[in-house]
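dude i think i finally got it to work??
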Amino acid sequence: MDSLNDKLRDIEQNFLKKKPMKNAIVNTTLNTFLKLISFRGIALELYGKKGTGKTTTMYKLIAQLQSQGYLCMLINADFSYDGKFAEECKIDNSKLILINTNDINEILKIISGSKNCYIFIDSMAALDLEKISIDNLISIIRHNHLGLIYTNQIRNKKRGLSSYGRKLLKLYTDKRILVTKGELERIK
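look at this
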């Protein structure tokens, strides 16, 4: 776990200066995140307001992992996958395992038999999650040494901003990455 913390410190010091990054260094930052998610058995959350580029960032991560020969599975929980846009982001659709479901029990069955791949969920807000479901999901990810990267939307509330299932998901997520206007802003 020290190596994971070292990688996170490196990302925070070199790429996330508490201000949004310029587009020119987003690809470099994505490469650094690829090193971070090489630690299998961890969960990363890409969160932000609606329309800030969470899915686009996820697509770029998938494309980069595919270019390095990794197998990626995308669980399209909100049924918004756009194959043409994914190709523009350099995803090889013929090598992507695309699952269209928002049934958490079906997702748990699918990933429980998965090995040596990265699991992407777009979006966690589309799933009907309970504590036991999250327990099972994270347990499978850790046991099978899978990488989990998911998107989550921030919602405006009277007392500030909140993300779906924030209190529960926050407990299970190793790192939360804020996406604003297509730029990676900070890690929590």
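The beta strands are 43-48, 71-75, 96-99, 117-121, 147-157, 160-163, 175-180, 183-187.
im so relieved honestly
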